[in-house]
Amino acid sequence: MKVIKFLSNKIYLIFYSRIIETKKNIDLFNRLFFKTSEKLRRLTYSIIYAEQPKFLEHEKKSFGSLNPDLTFFVIRLTLGGGIFSNYNNVLYLLKYAEDNNLISVIDYKNYPNYQREPKAINGTKNSWDYFHNQPSDYSLAEVYKSKNVILSNNRSQYYFNKLDFKYFFDAKVAVEKKQLEEMNRLTKKISYNKTTNNFIRNKLDEIFNEKKDVLGVFLRGTDYANKKLALDHYVPLGVEESLELTKEYVEKNNYKYIYLSTEQLEYLELFKREFGERLIYLDRPRWNAKDFDLDEHILEQRFDRKNDRYYTGLEYITDTEGLLRCDHIVGSLTNAFYYILIRNSELKKKVELIDKGLHG
Predict the structure, then answer these.
(1) Is 124 helix (H, G, I), strand (E, B) or coil?
(2) Which residues pair with 351 in a beta bridge?
(3) Measured between alpha carbons, how far apart are the two ends of the chain, in Å?
(4) What pTM value is reported for the model?
(5) Tens-of-pLDDT digits for all 360 residues of the chain?
(6) 3-state secondary structure of 136
(7) How far lies 299's CA from each of 32, 118, 303, in Å?
(8) Whole-angstrom distance, CA of residue 142 vs CA of residue 66
(9) Read out DSSP for 48-97?
């Protein structure tokens, strides 16, 4: 009887674990865009192994006879993360490609990610190209007909470990001048495209309107403030703490305006009540506790509008770029603030990173 009970429990766990993983995948399919072939592969993997698909491997491939004297490096960070998480991690892979004489091309068309839309945006189905230029002049179509192609591991730490950089995602990077300058140089390889640049310029010119003496406050909320969802990420400034800090800096340095970069509506409303017309902010949809589940990852939720993935990414980029128009920037470490540190190695603004440690 004991043997039968043991075997029945074993069989139950085998089936139950696969049912759970299948449900997780179906939930993800409802939140993000997956092609039918991608759904089938993901479900098949979960049924066989009772887990989500593992990291893709670093693979050498030959797709045709074109460009026999060149080696291409296809960057494919799937599912990846938020817009600046993907961006910063691409910088590491670009550095690896440079060091190894590889020609980079970024493929966010053929691999699922949090920004990809079902239909083309601005004439492209490659969600990297929604916002940025490619690091080379070669198209995906040509690369996938070429003789020598490396498909990247989708874990950027794999490449970071091969670089002469000290910190992957660590508040200590704020004082690593050489690393930040090198990453800033790499940003020139993947500049914003014309559509993105025009959107940023038009929106920020309108709200800044040549205003001077501006304090920039970067305040993350939503899932970033949720310890359960943000393990191994940095604890953000609390909204009340941020308000007190802002008032202190305004009084001490005589700032005339405050620019607030935040994705949470409740935080914006508090700052509006405190600072009134002195507050500058980008008018965009924001998350709130009434309409969204802040105990779930925001990346997997959406606003009710056409092409929301695209517009949410575009607005977050613009919101973050607004900080770089300020005289003094203060905030805690996220990938967006990491980007601020990278760009500031050239711009030389006053940037203050407040390290509250990691969620533990």
Answers:
(1) strand
(2) 329
(3) 44
(4) 0.93
(5) 666 665 676 666 677 788 888 898 898 898 899 999 999 999 998 888 888 777 899 999 999 999 999 999 999 999 998 999 999 999 999 999 999 999 999 999 999 999 999 999 999 999 999 999 999 999 999 999 999 999 999 999 999 999 999 999 999 999 999 999 999 999 999 999 999 999 999 999 999 999 999 999 999 887 766 666 556 778 888 899 999 999 999 999 999 999 999 999 999 999 999 999 999 999 999 999 888 887 788 888 899 999 999 999 999 999 999 999 999 999 999 999 999 999 999 999 999 999 887 776
(6) coil
(7) 9, 16, 11
(8) 8
(9) HHSS---PPP-EEE--SSB-TT--EEEE---S--SHHHHHHHHHHHHHHH
Q: Name the amino acid, one letter, at 319.
A: D
As a whole number of angstroms, the distance between CA 298 and CA 288 comes to 11
Residue 12 tokens, joined: 């139950």
Of residues 139, 175, 131, the one with CA closest to residue 333: 175
Here the tokens at position 268 are 């914006």
CA–CA gap between residue 204 and residue 66 (Å, rounded): 44
CA distance 205 to 322: 10
> Residue 84 in contact with residue 339, Cβ under 8 Å?
yes
Six-digit token pair at 352? 């203050």
How far is the C-alpha of 215 from the C-alpha of 221, rounded, in Å? Answer: 19
Give the pair of three-digit tokens for residue 303: 């606003």
On whether the CB atoms of residues 294 and 287 are closer than 8 A, the answer is yes
